[in-house]
Specification:
With 137 residues, the protein is an alpha+beta fold. Helix content is 21%, strand content 39%. The longest helix is centred in the middle third of the chain and has 13 residues. This is NUDIX domain-containing protein.
Length: 137
């Protein structure tokens, strides 16, 4: 079980690609980053492991069933300590839900356009680039 450390709030995210190498993004319904595109994810609830939280958040926000793998990277954004996991889709139908107003697969050109337009959550593009996790398509 992973509890928040100090005043930070432990969160998880899923880095997921489709068969074409496109990256899964959601448009956030709530702050932080309301209206912007981001990786699906959210807070680790009390008593949950990171793996359980990734599975729950991915299903709630995207309608997809996933198997979380290794941690791709971690960042701290304000009070949020975010651990992003590589995920493999095992089923479901892509549908925005819960804290997402939209969900889509994004190729490299699309992601670059979202970054240029300021529609990505702060520093997401740079972080994904630094982690070598940009869309492969």
């Amino acid at each position: 079980m992973n509890a928040p450390t100090g005043t930070t709030i432990r969160c998880v995210g899923g880095i997921t690609y489709d068969d074409l190498g496109r990256l899964l993004l959601i448009r956030r319904a709530n702050d932080p980053g309301s209206g912007q595109w981001s990786l699906p994810g959210g807070r680790v609830e009390p008593g949950e492991t990171d793996e359980q939280a990734v599975i729950r958040e991915m299903l709630e926000e995207t309608g997809l069933h996933v198997i979380p793998g290794t941690v791709v990277g971690s960042v701290v954004r304000g009070p949020y300590e975010i651990h992003d996991y590589a995920c493999s889709v095992t089923g479901g139908v892509l549908t925005a839900g819960d804290d997402a107003t939209d969900a889509r697969w994004s190729d490299a050109a699309d992601l670059s356009g979202l970054e240029a337009a300021g529609e990505l959550v702060d520093l997401l593009y740079v972080t994904l680039r630094d982690w070598n996790a940009l869309p492969r398509a």
